[in-house]
Amino acid sequence: MRAAVSDADLDAIPTAERPTVTVRSGDCLWDIAARELGPDATPREVDRRWRDWHRENADAIGPDPHLLLPGTV
Predict the structure, then answer these.
(1) What angle do CA 70, 71, 73 make, to 5 degrees?
(2) Taking the C-alpha atoms of 44, 48, 49 and 54 in order, what is their torsion angle to the nearest 10 degrees?
(3) Cα separations (Å) of 21 from 1, 2, 72?
(4) Is the separation of the CB atoms in 49 and 35 below 8 Å?
(5) Any idea what the Cα angle at residue 10 is, between residues 69 and 41, rounded to 5°?
(6) pTM of the model
(7) Which residues are CB-neighbours of 58 under 8 A, at least 6 positions away?
(8) Using N-to-C axis directions, what is the helix angle for 29-37 and 43-61, rounded to 10°?
């Protein structure tokens, strides 16, 4: 059984219409990438995607991909 998805969770999933994510407390790039890719994504796909996220957004995220500050867009 899948857990219900809240509106806050939906806001954290990037789409073509809304290609940004606002970091929430407790977020990590792995979780953001997994939400974007969906439940059928393999660990390898998620790993590749979070690394892409960091590379493409290093100016906003900073040099440490494991340190996301809430409110970062």
Answers:
(1) 120
(2) 140
(3) 26, 23, 8
(4) no
(5) 90
(6) 0.70
(7) none
(8) 120
Placement of tokens 């407390």 in the chain: 25
| pLDDT tens, residue by residue, 3-53 | 454 555 555 565 556 568 899 999 999 999 999 899 999 999 999 999 998
Contact 29, 54 (CB under 8 A): yes
Q: Which two tokens stand for residue 41?
A: 């994504």
Model confidence at 72, pLDDT cuts 50, 70, 90, reads: very high
Closest of 61, 62, 4 to residue 32, by C-alpha = 61
